[in-house]
Predict the structure.
Amino acid sequence: MKVAAAAYPCSDLTSWDAYVQKITDWVSEAAGEGAQLLVFPEYGAMELATLEGRETALDLEASLYAVNKWVPQADALHSDLADRFGLHILAASAPVFDEAISARPVNRARLFAPGGAVAHQDKQIMTRFEREVWDIAPGGPLQVFDTALGKIAVLICYDSEFPLLGRAVAEAELILVPSVTEALSGHSRVCIGAAARALENQCVSVMSSVVGTADWSESIDVSTGRGSVFGPPDRGFPENGILAQGKLNAPGWTYATVDRSAIADVRADGVVLNRTHWSEQSGRDMVAAITPLR
């Protein structure tokens, strides 16, 4: 299959119709290139706050409620586009108020399939900004979605930097990593995490990013990133594990072709078998003793 990872600039929207046109153009472009799975970035939905005015968008707390208000309409749009173009779309994640989980919003990515099927994945571990400043809550548990394209999981940004979260979705053939990072160092951390999860699970990870500036936002004001697709550096994959990587901070799609049979093959008979041998860490993963050597 062909996957598309977005390097996505957020806009100061003039109207709902402007948002519809923007998302439709992005999806249409990727569909025209033959992509079957589109991945938009973390907090890309913050641009919806501008529909409530610049002052609201600039207010960290008010922007949460503003975006949450527009998410149902954004979801309907993405569902329609997934069906119209016959592809799967991971929409840009958004702060969503879900009273069954928390009084505070969770960071939620929604996955749309042709025919109207929809599922969501919440972020598990909050960054310092999310927990200390913005007060975003950890969401519902990790899931693996069994789709027509294969088994898909989502690790939102910081979640990709935690090996045990990656192991929890080890059944996934594709791990989607929507992200937003201010500095190159942050982008590098998520890239390393996404690549490491592909190595450990012998699968493919697809990372998307917000790029550019948004002077109407305190949460995504400056963003550094690009689209990237990683696999295990093993037989059937590039020697450096990079299937595709876009130019830093250049808006647009990054495409890669993913062969599920190559994933199955490397898991069964790779040069190394990280996924199979994971359990051999048990008993050897106790805190190491400090041994004097001087």
Remarks:
- The first helix runs from residue 16 to 32.
- The first strand starts at residue 2 and ends at 9.
- Helices lie at 16-32, 54-58, 60-85, 128-134, 163-168, 184-201, 260-269, 274-277.
